[in-house]
Amino acid sequence: MAGDATWIWGTHPVQAAWTNPDRRLLRLIGTSEALKTLTSLPDRPHPESLTRGEITQVLPEGALHQGLAALIRPLPERFVEDLAGDCADDSQALVVVLDRANDPHNIGAVLRSAAAFGARALILPRHHAPDVTGVMAKAACGALERVPLIQVPNISRALGTLKESGFWCVGLDGRADSDLPTLDLNGRTALVMGSEGDGLRRLTRETCDLLARIPMTSAVESLNLSNAAAIALYEIARRRTA
């Protein structure tokens, strides 16, 4: 991810960043009404009160800012190896791995679902994923501050590291023989997903412990990545609480 500062906007993304002690904020701008929703915190920049029009001029074209925006620095880098320690006391730890994803809207939406269903991290390829942007943060609706994003140089090697930490790697593949709802989804699980068009890459597919599909009718060939992630994460959560 780029080391440069980036603007995020919208009520939930900015509020989540504002209250995240690990997130460095360089500027905070908002309307007088929007700024009232933020609790005063130490070590934060002094809020700048602007009109909606003035905020619009600062941000990229089309940004739906709801009267609130912040200029942020990237969070401290995290590594797959960190998950071994982070999940040492969590026998049901769940992480999401995206083999290929280049749409920040989709990644943000997957982050939101990951947060909703308790995933501990979202793992992305370092060279085939977009930088964190305001678009991604807006789609994530605050989850960018709650679910660690881990970028890796090689997805297959990352899966190997997860396996060494006791994770069972389940790849979603529309051509798989097994339906996701029929699997035993207890234990540490890495949900591995590919691109909408091409799916999982060969080596990623071969590295997974097993492949599963989301059962659906023949009316459509595939689901949007973020929709598939939400369904799969819900199914894993449902099975674990049944």
Based on the model shown, name its key terms.
242 residues; alpha/beta; 60s Ribosomal Protein L30, Chain: A; Alpha/beta knot; seven-stranded parallel β-sheet; four-stranded mixed β-sheet; elongated
Describe the protein's architecture and organization.
It is a single chain. The protein is α/β, with parallel strands linked by helices and 242 residues long. The chain is built from nine helices and eleven strands. The strands form two sheets. The chain has a seven-stranded parallel beta sheet, sandwiched between helices. Strands 1-4-2-3 form a four-stranded mixed beta sheet. It is elongated. The mean pLDDT is 93.
Brief rundown of the structure:
The protein has helices spanning 11-19, 32-35, 52-58, 80-86, 104-116, 134-140, 155-164, 202-207, 225-241; strands spanning 6-9, 25-30, 48-49, 68-72, 94-98, 121-125, 149-152, 168-172, 178-179, 189-193, 210-213. It has 242 residues and is of the alpha/beta class.
The second-level CATH architecture of the largest domain is 3-Layer(aba) Sandwich
Oligomeric description of these chains: single chain
Percentage of residues in helical conformation: 25-40%
* Poorly predicted spans: none
Output the number of helix runs. Answer: 9
Alpha-beta classification: alpha/beta
Write the layout of secondary structure elements.
Layout: E1 6-9, H1 11-19, E2 25-30, H2 32-35, E3 48-49, H3 52-58, E4 68-72, H4 80-86, E5 94-98, H5 104-116, E6 121-125, H6 134-140, E7 149-152, H7 155-164, E8 168-172, E9 178-179, E10 189-193, H8 202-207, E11 210-213, H9 225-241
Parallel strand pairs: 2-3, 5-6, 5-10, 6-7, 8-10, 8-11, 9-11
Antiparallel strand pairs: 1-4, 2-4
